[in-house]
Amino acid sequence: MLETIPAAERAAVAPRSRSRLSRAAPFVAAVLASLALWIAPAFLDTFAVNVLTRSMIYAVLAVTVDLLWGFAGILTFGQAAFFGVGAYAAAMILGAYGATPVGIAAALATAVAAPALLGLVVGWLSFYHRSTPLYASVISLVVPIVVTQLIYSGGEWTGSSSGLVGFDVLPFEIEGYFRLAALVLVAVTLAAWILVQSDAGRALVALKDNEARCAYLGLNPRRLQILLTTALAAVAGLAGFLFANASGVVAPENAGFLFGTELVIWVALGGRGTLLGPVIGTIAIDYLAANLSGDLPFLWQLLLGTAFVAIIILLPGGLADPVGRLWRALPVGRTGQAAPALAAREAGSATSTAEAPILKVQGLAKSYGSLTVLEGIDLEIRAGELVSLVGPNGAGKTTLMRCLSDGTEPFRGAIAIGGTPTTGLTPNRIVGLGVGRKFQVASVFESLSVADCLRLARASHDGLSPLSQAPTLGLPQAALDVLRMTGLDRLLTRPTRLLSHGQKQALELAMVVALEPRLILLDEPTAGLTKAERTTIGSVLKALTAGGRIAAVLVEHDLDFVREISSRIVVLHQGRLVLDGTVDEVVGSELVRTIYSGGAHA
Protein backbone atom coordinates (compact mmCIF):
# COMPACT_ATOMS: atom_id res chain seq x y z
CA MET A 1 0.00 0.00 0.00
CA LEU A 2 1.47 3.37 -0.99
CA GLU A 3 0.55 6.71 0.47
CA THR A 4 1.95 9.41 -1.81
CA ILE A 5 3.71 12.31 -0.11
CA PRO A 6 4.56 15.49 -2.06
CA ALA A 7 8.24 15.71 -3.00
CA ALA A 8 10.10 18.49 -1.21
CA GLU A 9 12.33 19.69 -3.96
CA ARG A 10 9.81 21.18 -6.42
CA ALA A 11 11.44 24.53 -7.10
CA ALA A 12 14.50 22.97 -8.71
CA VAL A 13 12.55 20.72 -11.07
CA ALA A 14 12.32 21.74 -14.73
CA PRO A 15 8.86 22.40 -16.17
CA ARG A 16 6.93 19.23 -16.93
CA SER A 17 6.65 19.98 -20.63
CA ARG A 18 10.41 20.41 -20.94
CA SER A 19 10.93 17.12 -19.10
CA ARG A 20 8.63 15.30 -21.54
CA LEU A 21 10.45 16.90 -24.45
CA SER A 22 13.77 15.80 -23.02
CA ARG A 23 12.57 12.19 -22.72
CA ALA A 24 11.19 12.19 -26.26
CA ALA A 25 14.28 13.79 -27.84
CA PRO A 26 16.35 10.56 -28.20
CA PHE A 27 13.48 8.79 -29.96
CA VAL A 28 13.00 11.71 -32.33
CA ALA A 29 16.77 11.78 -32.94
CA ALA A 30 16.74 8.03 -33.63
CA VAL A 31 13.98 8.41 -36.24
CA LEU A 32 15.74 11.34 -37.92
CA ALA A 33 19.08 9.48 -37.90
CA SER A 34 17.42 6.43 -39.46
CA LEU A 35 15.86 8.53 -42.21
CA ALA A 36 19.14 10.34 -42.92
CA LEU A 37 21.11 7.11 -43.09
CA TRP A 38 18.44 5.48 -45.25
CA ILE A 39 18.88 8.08 -47.98
CA ALA A 40 22.64 8.56 -47.48
CA PRO A 41 23.74 5.94 -50.11
CA ALA A 42 22.20 8.12 -52.82
CA PHE A 43 24.84 10.79 -52.06
CA LEU A 44 27.88 8.58 -51.38
CA ASP A 45 30.24 6.78 -53.72
CA THR A 46 30.69 3.01 -53.65
CA PHE A 47 33.91 3.18 -51.60
CA ALA A 48 32.30 5.33 -48.91
CA VAL A 49 29.22 3.11 -48.71
CA ASN A 50 31.41 0.00 -48.32
CA VAL A 51 33.64 1.51 -45.63
CA LEU A 52 30.84 3.16 -43.69
CA THR A 53 28.88 -0.11 -43.64
CA ARG A 54 31.84 -1.77 -41.91
CA SER A 55 32.33 1.27 -39.67
CA MET A 56 28.72 1.18 -38.47
CA ILE A 57 29.01 -2.53 -37.68
CA TYR A 58 32.15 -1.77 -35.66
CA ALA A 59 30.23 1.03 -33.91
CA VAL A 60 27.71 -1.56 -32.67
CA LEU A 61 30.66 -3.28 -31.00
CA ALA A 62 31.83 0.04 -29.58
CA VAL A 63 28.45 0.47 -27.86
CA THR A 64 28.91 -2.89 -26.11
CA VAL A 65 32.43 -1.92 -24.99
CA ASP A 66 31.12 1.40 -23.69
CA LEU A 67 28.39 -0.28 -21.66
CA LEU A 68 30.93 -2.64 -20.12
CA TRP A 69 33.78 -0.18 -19.60
CA GLY A 70 32.21 3.25 -19.52
CA PHE A 71 29.18 2.40 -17.38
CA ALA A 72 29.90 -0.86 -15.53
CA GLY A 73 33.64 -0.23 -15.11
CA ILE A 74 34.70 -3.53 -16.73
CA LEU A 75 37.67 -2.90 -19.03
CA THR A 76 37.34 -5.57 -21.70
CA PHE A 77 39.32 -6.56 -24.76
CA GLY A 78 37.16 -9.62 -25.41
CA GLN A 79 34.33 -8.21 -27.50
CA ALA A 80 36.39 -8.96 -30.62
CA ALA A 81 36.32 -12.67 -29.72
CA PHE A 82 32.52 -12.69 -29.48
CA PHE A 83 32.33 -10.74 -32.74
CA GLY A 84 34.61 -13.26 -34.45
CA VAL A 85 32.69 -16.26 -33.12
CA GLY A 86 29.44 -14.75 -34.43
CA ALA A 87 30.97 -14.02 -37.83
CA TYR A 88 32.45 -17.51 -38.19
CA ALA A 89 29.25 -19.19 -37.02
CA ALA A 90 27.27 -17.28 -39.64
CA ALA A 91 29.79 -18.02 -42.40
CA MET A 92 30.01 -21.72 -41.60
CA ILE A 93 26.24 -22.27 -41.53
CA LEU A 94 25.58 -20.14 -44.61
CA GLY A 95 28.34 -22.05 -46.38
CA ALA A 96 26.75 -25.37 -45.45
CA TYR A 97 23.07 -24.58 -45.98
CA GLY A 98 23.09 -21.55 -48.27
CA ALA A 99 21.14 -18.32 -47.94
CA THR A 100 17.79 -20.07 -47.77
CA PRO A 101 15.24 -18.88 -45.19
CA VAL A 102 16.15 -21.83 -42.97
CA GLY A 103 19.88 -21.27 -43.48
CA ILE A 104 19.64 -17.55 -42.72
CA ALA A 105 17.55 -18.18 -39.60
CA ALA A 106 19.95 -20.88 -38.40
CA ALA A 107 22.97 -18.66 -39.11
CA LEU A 108 21.46 -15.72 -37.21
CA ALA A 109 20.43 -17.86 -34.25
CA THR A 110 23.83 -19.53 -34.00
CA ALA A 111 25.71 -16.26 -34.50
CA VAL A 112 23.88 -14.86 -31.46
CA ALA A 113 23.71 -18.00 -29.30
CA ALA A 114 27.31 -19.19 -29.66
CA PRO A 115 28.89 -15.90 -28.47
CA ALA A 116 26.27 -15.68 -25.70
CA LEU A 117 27.27 -19.13 -24.46
CA LEU A 118 30.93 -18.20 -24.65
CA GLY A 119 30.12 -14.93 -22.86
CA LEU A 120 28.42 -16.88 -20.08
CA VAL A 121 31.54 -19.00 -19.59
CA VAL A 122 33.84 -15.98 -19.75
CA GLY A 123 31.61 -14.07 -17.33
CA TRP A 124 31.66 -16.95 -14.86
CA LEU A 125 35.45 -17.22 -15.09
CA SER A 126 35.90 -13.46 -14.79
CA PHE A 127 33.56 -12.70 -11.91
CA TYR A 128 33.65 -15.62 -9.55
CA HIS A 129 33.59 -14.69 -5.84
CA ARG A 130 36.53 -12.50 -4.73
CA SER A 131 37.86 -12.00 -8.27
CA THR A 132 39.24 -8.55 -9.05
CA PRO A 133 38.67 -6.16 -11.99
CA LEU A 134 42.27 -6.81 -13.06
CA TYR A 135 41.56 -10.52 -13.23
CA ALA A 136 38.51 -9.91 -15.42
CA SER A 137 40.58 -7.74 -17.77
CA VAL A 138 43.27 -10.44 -18.03
CA ILE A 139 40.62 -13.02 -18.93
CA SER A 140 39.34 -10.67 -21.63
CA LEU A 141 42.89 -10.44 -22.99
CA VAL A 142 43.28 -14.20 -23.13
CA VAL A 143 39.92 -15.05 -24.76
CA PRO A 144 40.65 -13.44 -28.19
CA ILE A 145 44.03 -15.20 -28.27
CA VAL A 146 42.46 -18.57 -27.51
CA VAL A 147 39.65 -18.06 -30.05
CA THR A 148 42.15 -17.03 -32.74
CA GLN A 149 44.26 -20.12 -32.09
CA LEU A 150 41.16 -22.32 -32.35
CA ILE A 151 40.39 -20.70 -35.71
CA TYR A 152 43.94 -21.38 -36.93
CA SER A 153 43.66 -25.03 -35.90
CA GLY A 154 40.16 -25.50 -37.35
CA GLY A 155 41.37 -26.66 -40.77
CA GLU A 156 38.69 -26.73 -43.45
CA TRP A 157 36.00 -25.87 -40.92
CA THR A 158 37.38 -22.39 -40.27
CA GLY A 159 39.71 -21.95 -43.25
CA SER A 160 42.69 -21.76 -40.87
CA SER A 161 44.81 -18.65 -41.49
CA SER A 162 43.02 -17.91 -44.79
CA GLY A 163 39.60 -17.56 -43.21
CA LEU A 164 36.32 -18.30 -44.96
CA VAL A 165 35.17 -16.86 -48.26
CA GLY A 166 32.67 -17.71 -50.97
CA PHE A 167 29.76 -18.60 -48.69
CA ASP A 168 26.24 -17.47 -49.54
CA VAL A 169 25.06 -14.20 -48.02
CA LEU A 170 21.85 -12.22 -47.64
CA PRO A 171 20.38 -11.18 -51.01
CA PHE A 172 21.12 -7.47 -50.60
CA GLU A 173 22.91 -4.96 -52.74
CA ILE A 174 25.64 -2.84 -51.18
CA GLU A 175 23.14 -0.09 -50.35
CA GLY A 176 20.93 -2.66 -48.62
CA TYR A 177 23.77 -3.71 -46.30
CA PHE A 178 24.46 -0.05 -45.52
CA ARG A 179 20.83 0.52 -44.54
CA LEU A 180 20.65 -2.71 -42.54
CA ALA A 181 23.82 -1.84 -40.59
CA ALA A 182 22.52 1.68 -40.00
CA LEU A 183 19.17 0.50 -38.64
CA VAL A 184 20.83 -2.05 -36.35
CA LEU A 185 23.26 0.60 -35.07
CA VAL A 186 20.46 3.07 -34.34
CA ALA A 187 18.39 0.37 -32.64
CA VAL A 188 21.29 -0.88 -30.47
CA THR A 189 22.31 2.66 -29.50
CA LEU A 190 18.74 3.62 -28.60
CA ALA A 191 18.31 0.42 -26.57
CA ALA A 192 21.56 1.16 -24.76
CA TRP A 193 20.39 4.71 -24.00
CA ILE A 194 17.08 3.41 -22.61
CA LEU A 195 19.00 0.95 -20.42
CA VAL A 196 21.46 3.47 -18.97
CA GLN A 197 18.65 5.92 -18.20
CA SER A 198 16.61 3.27 -16.39
CA ASP A 199 16.81 2.05 -12.80
CA ALA A 200 18.75 -1.01 -13.98
CA GLY A 201 21.21 1.28 -15.74
CA ARG A 202 21.88 3.04 -12.43
CA ALA A 203 22.84 -0.37 -11.06
CA LEU A 204 25.59 -0.62 -13.71
CA VAL A 205 27.04 2.70 -12.56
CA ALA A 206 26.70 1.54 -8.95
CA LEU A 207 28.77 -1.54 -9.77
CA LYS A 208 31.54 0.69 -11.09
CA ASP A 209 31.32 3.05 -8.12
CA ASN A 210 31.05 0.68 -5.19
CA GLU A 211 30.69 -3.03 -5.81
CA ALA A 212 30.87 -3.88 -2.10
CA ARG A 213 27.94 -1.59 -1.23
CA CYS A 214 25.88 -3.25 -4.01
CA ALA A 215 26.40 -6.61 -2.31
CA TYR A 216 25.46 -5.16 1.08
CA LEU A 217 22.22 -3.87 -0.43
CA GLY A 218 21.21 -7.40 -1.35
CA LEU A 219 22.22 -7.17 -5.01
CA ASN A 220 24.36 -9.89 -6.55
CA PRO A 221 27.21 -8.07 -8.34
CA ARG A 222 28.59 -11.25 -9.86
CA ARG A 223 25.22 -12.20 -11.35
CA LEU A 224 24.74 -8.71 -12.80
CA GLN A 225 28.23 -8.74 -14.32
CA ILE A 226 27.78 -12.21 -15.80
CA LEU A 227 24.36 -11.34 -17.26
CA LEU A 228 25.74 -8.12 -18.76
CA THR A 229 28.72 -9.95 -20.28
CA THR A 230 26.45 -12.63 -21.74
CA ALA A 231 23.92 -10.18 -23.21
CA LEU A 232 26.57 -7.96 -24.80
CA ALA A 233 28.38 -11.01 -26.18
CA ALA A 234 25.13 -11.85 -27.98
CA VAL A 235 24.98 -8.29 -29.41
CA ALA A 236 28.60 -8.66 -30.57
CA GLY A 237 27.60 -11.92 -32.26
CA LEU A 238 24.80 -10.08 -34.08
CA ALA A 239 27.38 -7.58 -35.32
CA GLY A 240 29.50 -10.52 -36.47
CA PHE A 241 26.54 -11.91 -38.45
CA LEU A 242 26.11 -8.56 -40.20
CA PHE A 243 29.84 -8.32 -40.92
CA ALA A 244 30.03 -11.83 -42.41
CA ASN A 245 27.16 -11.07 -44.79
CA ALA A 246 28.26 -7.55 -45.73
CA SER A 247 31.90 -8.43 -46.39
CA GLY A 248 31.56 -12.00 -47.63
CA VAL A 249 34.85 -12.79 -45.89
CA VAL A 250 35.76 -13.66 -42.31
CA ALA A 251 39.34 -13.95 -41.09
CA PRO A 252 41.14 -14.76 -37.81
CA GLU A 253 42.00 -11.11 -37.22
CA ASN A 254 38.28 -10.38 -36.83
CA ALA A 255 38.44 -12.24 -33.50
CA GLY A 256 41.94 -11.14 -32.52
CA PHE A 257 43.44 -9.28 -29.62
CA LEU A 258 44.56 -6.35 -31.81
CA PHE A 259 41.01 -5.71 -32.97
CA GLY A 260 39.79 -5.87 -29.37
CA THR A 261 42.42 -3.29 -28.41
CA GLU A 262 41.37 -1.03 -31.29
CA LEU A 263 37.79 -1.10 -29.99
CA VAL A 264 38.95 0.06 -26.55
CA ILE A 265 40.98 2.86 -28.16
CA TRP A 266 38.04 4.01 -30.28
CA VAL A 267 35.79 4.12 -27.21
CA ALA A 268 38.41 6.06 -25.24
CA LEU A 269 38.88 8.57 -28.05
CA GLY A 270 35.14 9.05 -28.54
CA GLY A 271 34.46 9.40 -24.83
CA ARG A 272 33.56 6.40 -22.71
CA GLY A 273 30.37 6.55 -20.74
CA THR A 274 28.62 8.70 -23.36
CA LEU A 275 27.32 6.13 -25.94
CA LEU A 276 27.24 8.62 -28.82
CA GLY A 277 30.92 9.49 -28.37
CA PRO A 278 32.15 5.94 -29.06
CA VAL A 279 29.68 5.54 -31.96
CA ILE A 280 30.80 8.71 -33.73
CA GLY A 281 34.44 8.16 -32.81
CA THR A 282 34.49 4.62 -34.17
CA ILE A 283 32.86 5.59 -37.46
CA ALA A 284 35.13 8.61 -37.93
CA ILE A 285 38.37 6.81 -37.05
CA ASP A 286 37.65 3.70 -39.12
CA TYR A 287 36.59 5.80 -42.13
CA LEU A 288 39.65 8.03 -41.87
CA ALA A 289 41.90 5.00 -41.42
CA ALA A 290 40.49 3.45 -44.62
CA ASN A 291 41.29 6.64 -46.54
CA LEU A 292 44.66 7.35 -44.96
CA SER A 293 45.89 3.78 -45.32
CA GLY A 294 45.80 4.34 -49.07
CA ASP A 295 47.17 7.86 -49.14
CA LEU A 296 49.69 7.48 -46.29
CA PRO A 297 50.32 3.74 -46.00
CA PHE A 298 53.30 4.11 -43.64
CA LEU A 299 52.15 7.07 -41.57
CA TRP A 300 48.45 6.74 -40.82
CA GLN A 301 48.95 4.46 -37.80
CA LEU A 302 51.54 6.88 -36.42
CA LEU A 303 49.09 9.74 -36.89
CA LEU A 304 46.33 7.77 -35.17
CA GLY A 305 48.63 6.89 -32.27
CA THR A 306 49.70 10.51 -31.89
CA ALA A 307 46.08 11.66 -31.89
CA PHE A 308 45.25 9.04 -29.25
CA VAL A 309 48.04 10.21 -26.93
CA ALA A 310 47.11 13.88 -27.43
CA ILE A 311 43.42 13.32 -26.70
CA ILE A 312 44.10 11.18 -23.63
CA ILE A 313 46.37 13.92 -22.22
CA LEU A 314 44.30 16.96 -23.20
CA LEU A 315 40.80 15.45 -23.08
CA PRO A 316 40.75 12.50 -20.64
CA GLY A 317 36.99 12.25 -21.14
CA GLY A 318 37.37 11.84 -24.91
CA LEU A 319 36.09 14.03 -27.73
CA ALA A 320 32.55 13.86 -26.33
CA ASP A 321 33.58 15.62 -23.11
CA PRO A 322 33.80 19.21 -24.42
CA VAL A 323 30.66 18.65 -26.50
CA GLY A 324 28.82 17.49 -23.37
CA ARG A 325 29.99 20.51 -21.38
CA LEU A 326 28.82 22.82 -24.16
CA TRP A 327 25.43 21.10 -24.32
CA ARG A 328 24.93 21.40 -20.56
CA ALA A 329 25.79 25.09 -20.78
CA LEU A 330 22.88 25.69 -23.15
CA PRO A 331 19.36 26.32 -21.74
CA VAL A 332 17.98 23.23 -23.50
CA GLY A 333 20.70 21.10 -21.93
CA ARG A 334 19.86 22.16 -18.37
CA THR A 335 16.59 20.29 -18.01
CA GLY A 336 17.70 18.65 -14.76
CA GLN A 337 16.52 15.43 -13.18
CA ALA A 338 12.93 15.37 -11.94
CA ALA A 339 12.68 14.73 -8.22
CA PRO A 340 10.67 11.57 -7.52
CA ALA A 341 7.63 11.69 -5.29
CA LEU A 342 8.34 10.09 -1.94
CA ALA A 343 5.93 7.41 -0.81
CA ALA A 344 5.53 5.53 2.45
CA ARG A 345 5.58 1.80 1.86
CA GLU A 346 4.00 -0.49 4.40
CA ALA A 347 6.71 -2.52 6.10
CA GLY A 348 6.64 -6.29 6.02
CA SER A 349 5.42 -8.18 9.01
CA ALA A 350 7.93 -9.07 11.69
CA THR A 351 9.04 -12.68 11.75
CA SER A 352 10.95 -12.71 15.01
CA THR A 353 9.74 -12.96 18.58
CA ALA A 354 11.20 -11.69 21.80
CA GLU A 355 12.08 -15.25 22.81
CA ALA A 356 14.02 -16.17 19.66
CA PRO A 357 17.27 -14.24 19.16
CA ILE A 358 17.75 -12.51 15.82
CA LEU A 359 21.50 -13.02 16.10
CA LYS A 360 23.24 -15.91 17.85
CA VAL A 361 27.02 -16.25 17.96
CA GLN A 362 28.68 -19.31 19.48
CA GLY A 363 32.41 -19.84 19.97
CA LEU A 364 33.41 -17.38 17.25
CA ALA A 365 37.15 -17.22 16.61
CA LYS A 366 39.07 -15.46 13.85
CA SER A 367 42.79 -15.49 13.11
CA TYR A 368 45.13 -14.01 10.53
CA GLY A 369 47.94 -16.51 10.41
CA SER A 370 49.37 -16.79 13.92
CA LEU A 371 47.59 -13.60 15.04
CA THR A 372 44.33 -14.31 16.87
CA VAL A 373 41.89 -11.39 16.47
CA LEU A 374 38.73 -12.93 17.96
CA GLU A 375 38.42 -15.84 20.33
CA GLY A 376 35.53 -17.52 22.12
CA ILE A 377 32.83 -14.94 21.28
CA ASP A 378 29.34 -15.89 22.50
CA LEU A 379 26.60 -13.36 21.90
CA GLU A 380 22.82 -13.16 21.48
CA ILE A 381 20.83 -10.17 20.18
CA ARG A 382 17.03 -9.98 20.35
CA ALA A 383 14.49 -7.78 18.63
CA GLY A 384 14.16 -4.31 20.09
CA GLU A 385 17.67 -4.25 21.54
CA LEU A 386 20.19 -1.52 20.73
CA VAL A 387 23.47 -3.14 21.73
CA SER A 388 26.63 -1.06 21.73
CA LEU A 389 29.90 -2.86 21.10
CA VAL A 390 32.71 -0.92 22.76
CA GLY A 391 36.40 -1.42 23.31
CA PRO A 392 39.77 0.17 22.55
CA ASN A 393 41.32 0.25 19.09
CA GLY A 394 42.49 -3.18 18.00
CA ALA A 395 39.95 -5.01 20.15
CA GLY A 396 38.46 -6.77 17.09
CA LYS A 397 35.19 -4.85 16.79
CA THR A 398 35.29 -4.25 13.03
CA THR A 399 36.49 -7.82 12.44
CA LEU A 400 33.47 -9.07 14.38
CA MET A 401 31.15 -6.92 12.25
CA ARG A 402 32.75 -8.31 9.10
CA CYS A 403 32.21 -11.89 10.26
CA LEU A 404 28.58 -11.15 11.09
CA SER A 405 27.87 -9.70 7.64
CA ASP A 406 30.02 -11.92 5.38
CA GLY A 407 29.80 -15.68 5.78
CA THR A 408 32.66 -16.27 3.35
CA GLU A 409 35.11 -14.89 5.90
CA PRO A 410 37.18 -17.82 7.26
CA PHE A 411 36.26 -18.11 10.93
CA ARG A 412 35.65 -20.82 13.51
CA GLY A 413 32.47 -21.20 15.48
CA ALA A 414 28.88 -20.57 14.43
CA ILE A 415 26.80 -17.52 13.52
CA ALA A 416 23.05 -17.72 12.88
CA ILE A 417 20.56 -15.06 11.77
CA GLY A 418 17.02 -15.93 12.77
CA GLY A 419 18.14 -19.53 13.23
CA THR A 420 19.80 -19.77 9.78
CA PRO A 421 23.58 -20.44 9.79
CA THR A 422 25.53 -17.88 7.77
CA THR A 423 28.71 -19.88 7.18
CA GLY A 424 29.59 -19.71 3.48
CA LEU A 425 26.91 -17.14 2.62
CA THR A 426 27.94 -14.09 0.57
CA PRO A 427 26.96 -10.62 1.87
CA ASN A 428 23.99 -10.27 -0.48
CA ARG A 429 22.54 -13.57 0.79
CA ILE A 430 23.00 -12.48 4.40
CA VAL A 431 21.15 -9.26 3.53
CA GLY A 432 18.34 -11.54 2.35
CA LEU A 433 18.19 -12.95 5.90
CA GLY A 434 17.40 -9.48 7.20
CA VAL A 435 20.79 -7.92 7.96
CA GLY A 436 21.82 -4.39 6.98
CA ARG A 437 25.34 -3.05 7.48
CA LYS A 438 26.53 0.53 7.73
CA PHE A 439 30.28 1.07 7.37
CA GLN A 440 32.54 3.37 9.36
CA VAL A 441 33.31 5.43 6.26
CA ALA A 442 30.05 6.25 4.48
CA SER A 443 29.66 3.72 1.67
CA VAL A 444 27.43 5.28 -0.99
CA PHE A 445 27.47 5.73 -4.77
CA GLU A 446 29.34 8.94 -5.59
CA SER A 447 28.24 9.09 -9.24
CA LEU A 448 24.53 8.81 -8.48
CA SER A 449 21.93 11.09 -6.95
CA VAL A 450 20.42 10.67 -3.51
CA ALA A 451 17.21 9.27 -5.05
CA ASP A 452 19.17 6.79 -7.19
CA CYS A 453 21.02 5.49 -4.12
CA LEU A 454 17.72 4.95 -2.33
CA ARG A 455 16.19 3.20 -5.35
CA LEU A 456 19.09 0.76 -5.37
CA ALA A 457 18.50 0.12 -1.68
CA ARG A 458 14.98 -1.02 -2.58
CA ALA A 459 16.10 -3.13 -5.55
CA SER A 460 16.15 -6.41 -3.63
CA HIS A 461 12.46 -5.83 -2.74
CA ASP A 462 11.07 -3.99 -5.77
CA GLY A 463 13.43 -5.00 -8.59
CA LEU A 464 14.99 -2.69 -11.18
CA SER A 465 13.29 -1.86 -14.45
CA PRO A 466 15.58 -1.96 -17.53
CA LEU A 467 13.17 0.27 -19.46
CA SER A 468 12.40 3.28 -17.28
CA GLN A 469 12.93 5.10 -14.02
CA ALA A 470 10.13 4.95 -11.47
CA PRO A 471 8.56 8.39 -10.83
CA THR A 472 7.73 7.41 -7.23
CA LEU A 473 10.26 6.39 -4.62
CA GLY A 474 8.58 4.03 -2.17
CA LEU A 475 10.38 3.71 1.17
CA PRO A 476 9.54 2.28 4.58
CA GLN A 477 8.33 4.89 7.03
CA ALA A 478 11.51 4.50 9.08
CA ALA A 479 13.65 5.43 6.06
CA LEU A 480 11.42 8.44 5.34
CA ASP A 481 11.88 9.53 8.94
CA VAL A 482 15.67 9.38 8.52
CA LEU A 483 15.44 11.52 5.37
CA ARG A 484 13.22 14.11 7.02
CA MET A 485 15.18 14.33 10.24
CA THR A 486 18.40 14.92 8.30
CA GLY A 487 16.96 17.14 5.53
CA LEU A 488 17.81 14.71 2.74
CA ASP A 489 14.17 14.66 1.58
CA ARG A 490 14.87 18.12 0.08
CA LEU A 491 18.02 16.93 -1.72
CA LEU A 492 16.77 13.92 -3.68
CA THR A 493 18.22 15.07 -7.02
CA ARG A 494 21.55 16.23 -5.59
CA PRO A 495 24.59 14.17 -6.68
CA THR A 496 25.89 12.19 -3.73
CA ARG A 497 29.43 13.46 -4.25
CA LEU A 498 28.22 16.97 -3.35
CA LEU A 499 26.85 15.95 0.06
CA SER A 500 28.64 16.78 3.27
CA HIS A 501 30.22 14.05 5.38
CA GLY A 502 27.28 14.06 7.77
CA GLN A 503 24.75 13.93 4.94
CA LYS A 504 26.53 10.93 3.41
CA GLN A 505 26.43 9.16 6.77
CA ALA A 506 22.70 9.87 7.01
CA LEU A 507 22.12 8.72 3.43
CA GLU A 508 23.89 5.42 4.04
CA LEU A 509 21.79 4.90 7.18
CA ALA A 510 18.61 5.61 5.18
CA MET A 511 19.75 3.11 2.52
CA VAL A 512 20.30 0.44 5.16
CA VAL A 513 16.93 1.12 6.81
CA ALA A 514 15.25 0.99 3.37
CA LEU A 515 16.25 -2.69 3.22
CA GLU A 516 13.73 -3.35 6.01
CA PRO A 517 16.29 -5.33 8.01
CA ARG A 518 15.69 -7.19 11.25
CA LEU A 519 19.26 -6.52 12.37
CA ILE A 520 21.32 -3.41 11.64
CA LEU A 521 25.10 -3.44 12.06
CA LEU A 522 26.59 0.03 12.46
CA ASP A 523 30.34 0.65 12.58
CA GLU A 524 30.94 4.06 14.20
CA PRO A 525 28.03 5.83 12.48
CA THR A 526 28.77 9.14 14.24
CA ALA A 527 32.48 9.35 13.37
CA GLY A 528 33.34 12.89 12.24
CA LEU A 529 29.84 14.27 12.85
CA THR A 530 28.95 17.47 14.64
CA LYS A 531 27.15 17.35 17.99
CA ALA A 532 23.82 18.18 16.34
CA GLU A 533 24.31 15.45 13.73
CA ARG A 534 25.24 12.95 16.44
CA THR A 535 22.09 13.82 18.35
CA THR A 536 19.99 13.32 15.22
CA ILE A 537 21.57 9.93 14.47
CA GLY A 538 21.04 8.87 18.07
CA SER A 539 17.37 9.82 17.90
CA VAL A 540 16.99 7.88 14.66
CA LEU A 541 18.57 4.74 16.13
CA LYS A 542 16.44 4.85 19.28
CA ALA A 543 13.30 5.32 17.17
CA LEU A 544 14.21 2.36 14.94
CA THR A 545 14.57 -0.09 17.82
CA ALA A 546 11.80 1.33 20.01
CA GLY A 547 9.10 -0.52 18.06
CA GLY A 548 10.54 -3.89 19.05
CA ARG A 549 10.93 -5.15 15.46
CA ILE A 550 14.51 -4.18 14.70
CA ALA A 551 17.69 -4.90 16.62
CA ALA A 552 20.88 -2.88 16.23
CA VAL A 553 24.52 -3.57 17.00
CA LEU A 554 26.53 -0.37 17.25
CA VAL A 555 30.33 -0.09 17.33
CA GLU A 556 31.18 3.12 19.14
CA HIS A 557 34.03 4.75 21.13
CA ASP A 558 32.10 7.60 22.70
CA LEU A 559 30.82 6.23 26.04
CA ASP A 560 28.65 9.32 26.61
CA PHE A 561 26.84 8.71 23.31
CA VAL A 562 26.58 5.01 24.10
CA ARG A 563 25.08 5.75 27.55
CA GLU A 564 22.34 7.88 25.99
CA ILE A 565 21.01 5.43 23.40
CA SER A 566 21.95 1.85 24.37
CA SER A 567 19.77 -0.78 25.96
CA ARG A 568 22.80 -2.98 26.52
CA ILE A 569 26.59 -2.71 26.20
CA VAL A 570 29.09 -5.40 25.23
CA VAL A 571 32.79 -4.82 25.90
CA LEU A 572 35.40 -6.37 23.61
CA HIS A 573 39.06 -6.38 24.61
CA GLN A 574 41.95 -8.10 22.84
CA GLY A 575 39.54 -10.27 20.87
CA ARG A 576 37.56 -11.47 23.88
CA LEU A 577 34.13 -10.53 25.14
CA VAL A 578 34.94 -9.41 28.68
CA LEU A 579 31.67 -7.77 29.78
CA ASP A 580 28.02 -7.88 28.74
CA GLY A 581 25.46 -5.96 30.77
CA THR A 582 23.16 -3.01 31.19
CA VAL A 583 24.31 0.56 30.55
CA ASP A 584 24.77 1.35 34.23
CA GLU A 585 26.62 -1.90 34.93
CA VAL A 586 29.11 -1.45 32.10
CA VAL A 587 29.69 2.31 32.15
CA GLY A 588 30.30 2.25 35.91
CA SER A 589 32.51 -0.83 35.74
CA GLU A 590 36.06 -0.59 37.05
CA LEU A 591 37.08 -3.05 34.32
CA VAL A 592 35.93 -0.67 31.57
CA ARG A 593 37.84 2.24 33.09
CA THR A 594 40.93 0.04 33.32
CA ILE A 595 40.62 -1.11 29.70
CA TYR A 596 40.27 2.42 28.34
CA SER A 597 43.18 3.62 30.46
CA GLY A 598 45.34 0.87 28.94
CA GLY A 599 45.88 -1.12 32.10
CA ALA A 600 44.02 -4.35 31.36
CA HIS A 601 45.64 -7.48 29.93
CA ALA A 602 43.86 -10.50 28.51
What does this structure look like?
- The chain has 602 residues and is of the alpha/beta class.
- It folds into 2 domains: 27-257, no CATH class; 383-409 and 424-464 and 474-597, 3-Layer(aba) Sandwich (Rossmann fold).
- 54% of the residues lie in helices and 13% in strands.
- It has a 6-stranded mixed beta sheet with strand order 10-12-13-7-14-15, with helices on both faces. Strands 6-5-8-9 form a 4-stranded antiparallel beta sheet, covered by helices on one side. Strands 1-4-11 form a 3-stranded mixed beta sheet.
- Strand 12, helix 20 (531-546) and strand 13 form a beta-alpha-beta unit.
- The chain is elongated and about 90 Å long.
- Residues 1-16 and 349-353 have low confidence and may be disordered.
- It is found in: Cell membrane.
Percent of residues in helices comes to 40-55%
Uncertain regions spanning at least 5 consecutive residues: 1-16, 349-353
* pLDDT averaged residue by residue: 83
What is the CA-CA span between the terminal residues? 53 Å
> Which strand order does the major sheet show?
10-12-13-7-14-15
Number of helices: 23
Largest sheet properties: 6 strands, mixed
Percentage of β-strand residues:
5-15%
Structural class from helices and strands? alpha/beta
Q: Please give the number of β-strands.
A: 15
Number of domains: 2
Principal-axes shape call: elongated
The Cα radius of gyration reads: 29 Å
InterPro entries: AAA+_ATPase, ABC_AA/LPS_Transport, ABC_transp_permease, ABC_transporter-like_ATP-bd, ABC_transporter-like_CS, LivM-like, P-loop_NTPase
Subcellular location: Cell membrane
Family: Belongs to the ABC transporter superfamily.
Transmembrane segments: 24-44, 56-75, 80-98, 104-127, 134-152, 177-196, 226-244, 264-289, 298-319
